[in-house]
Amino acid sequence: MSDLLERLRGRGWRLTSQRRVVAQVLDGDHVHLTADEVHARAALLLPEISRATVYNTLGELVSLGEVIEVSTDGRAKRYDPNAHHPHQHLVCSRCGMIRDVHPSGSPLTDLPPAERFGFTVSTVEVTYRGLCPGCTQTLSS
Amino acid sequence: MSDLLERLRGRGWRLTSQRRVVAQVLDGDHVHLTADEVHARAALLLPEISRATVYNTLGELVSLGEVIEVSTDGRAKRYDPNAHHPHQHLVCSRCGMIRDVHPSGSPLTDLPPAERFGFTVSTVEVTYRGLCPGCTQTLSS
DNA sequence: ATCCTACGATGGACTCAGTCCAAGTCAAGA
DNA sequence: TCTTGACTTGGACTGAGTCCATCGTAGGAT
Ligand SMILES: [Mn+2]
Ligand SMILES: [Mn+2]
Ligand SMILES: [Zn+2]
Ligand SMILES: [Zn+2]
């Protein structure tokens, strides 16, 4: 994720320790943390980082397109650093676990012009819901 | 929507004036109201109905499958009485307006077994995002 | 028609996620 | 090293939704 820090510097960002730590926490695959989880992990590395700063930084990363905001039903939004490889999500309706998935077909073209009602359609979001292996077992035993 | 009231009676529900009024407010096509909007409209017909009752009734209707809960990003959930005709949603990212749409293709089968990671996948939700005709014009002028 | 009571309604307190703001701090250019 | 505006901080605040003790009433029983 150090290339992310490079890109941010290129955009005129001040490289504060807080921003470095948030970027570090978001590094990896299949990462879908809530803001509070990001805050908790960041605080292990930089104890006095504030919740407000985590929210600010995540918001900035989202509007730069470096992180995707995933809103799952009623719970807290999740933040996904895997923004440069388009993908969809498979969510466990019991425990909330999320996996990245890559469906075949292109959902955007599945919406015929007659069904667009004059909208300028730009993105599509597909969420598969079901039970993860662990929860399937728990509920059937 | 009187058939809805019939079905509810069949399930042992007490037909209170509050439940009747909520059912009445939810009648119609392309209805996607927030809980507070349902409350406001219900209160025109039955002034002292409480927010808690609206939430309770909506929750019950959802778990009976009579109403669908649509969670749009960070805002309040919307409640959709069009539960017996499967459909997806087209949402204006600026003003929040929602239209029902019927994409071709079946998104559920677009997820190959290899991409299911042992999940028992039961539903799929597709949200198309873009600008409605009004907002497209506003932003381009 | 009246009574009974379990189911439902009420409103106010509470939680949780997220935003806002005034004051203090510090990264980085001069 | 100095300066300054961008950034951070913690606490107050908001909005959506839940919880709960208490009260009311739908509808079956008599
Ligand atoms: Mn993802
Ligand atoms: Mn709908
Ligand atoms: Zn699970
Ligand atoms: Zn619009």
From TrEMBL, chains A, B:
Q: Which UniProt keywords apply?
A: DNA-binding, Repressor, Transcription, Transcription regulation, Zinc
Pfam families assigned: FUR
Q: What is this protein called?
A: Transcriptional repressor
So what family is this one in?
Belongs to the Fur family.
Q: SUPFAM superfamilies given for it?
A: Winged helix' DNA-binding domain
Q: Which domain of life does the protein's organism represent? A: Bacteria
Gene3D superfamilies in UniProt = 3.30.1490.190, Winged helix-like DNA-binding domain superfamily/Winged helix DNA-binding domain
Organism in which the protein naturally occurs = Actinacidiphila epipremni
CDD domains reported in the protein's UniProt record: Fur_like
